[in-house]
Structure formats: structure tokens, C-alpha cells
Amino acid sequence: MSDGELVRQTLSGRPTAYEELVRRWSARILAFCHAKVRSRHAGEDLAQEALMRGYRALGTLDDPEKFGPWLRGIALRVCLDWLKSKQNHQSAFSDLADGWSCDHGSHETEGERRGAAERGERLERLLLEVEALPDEYREVVMAYYYDDVTYQELAEALGVSAATINARLTKARAMLRERMSRLAR
Thinking of the domain 110-184, which architecture would CATH place it in? Predict the structure, then answer.
């Protein structure tokens, strides 16, 4: 079923159709918001806000077949509003924890705990470096890896060619390799 058909069903009183649209688009909108604001936790909140605004404003969508680009426009406005506000100067306590628990269980050896901590630190450094990429590279890396889409699907979502997606991903990966190797020295 197309996005347009799901939009029409939602507008005709079947809200479960919007749930399907959320399933289809939430990972892409999350990746987009994360890329724009350079914060995973803020990106999650902003993506949720964009999806809710999309639901409330669905009646204003002129062409139901263009739901994705329309929703992405809403997400962009949500992110820009957030960036303009003072919220972007505040850090949530959840940013510090980043999903790590202090209780790793007593069955792990000291070496296993150290190895897991080192992997976690490398992953956190990598995520920080991704967040520091220029916009066009950060956006494509996050969208590609969050949503696990093909180059063509990503190209259509971003309104560029698949060759452009390939070039941006190649350049972004090279930048990340260079930055990570510099940090390892």
C-alpha cells in the first residue's frame, strides 16, 4: 500500500493507517533530526514531535503521494526551531549515561568488562565524530545506517542521485577513518 493511500485512509477516519506511516518513516525522520541537531537524545524527541505535528497537520498535505518529503519538511522546521531556542545549550542527564548500565553482572571477567568499556568508548567517539561531520555527509551517514536503506531509496528521500549518495558516503567514511585514526594516536 502506498504512502498516499495510507494518508487518505488516515484522513477518512482510520488512525491505524498513520501508525503504518510512522513505522515506515520514523527511522528516516530520526536519522534526519539526529543529523541536524547533532544529538541522539534531542533527535529522538524532535523526531517524535515531527511525527505528531505531521499527524495533526495531515489535512494540509496537498499531494498524499508526497508524504515523505512533506514530513521531512516538518522535521526540518522542528529542528530549526529547537536549534534557535535555548534548549540546544542544555544537556540532558541521559546524554551522560548513553544507555550504559553500571551493573554489568558479576559473571563477567575483568577483561570482558574492560573490553566492553573500550568498545563502548570507541562507539561513543565514532558517534561524536559522525555528529561533527558537515551537514550533507552527516545526514547521509545517519540516514543510511539508521534506516538500512539502499542508495536509491536514500537518493529519492533526499532528492539527489544514487551516485551522489555513493560519493557522500565514500567521502564521509574517509573523513571518519582519518579522524578516528588521529584520535587513536
Answer: Orthogonal Bundle (1.10)
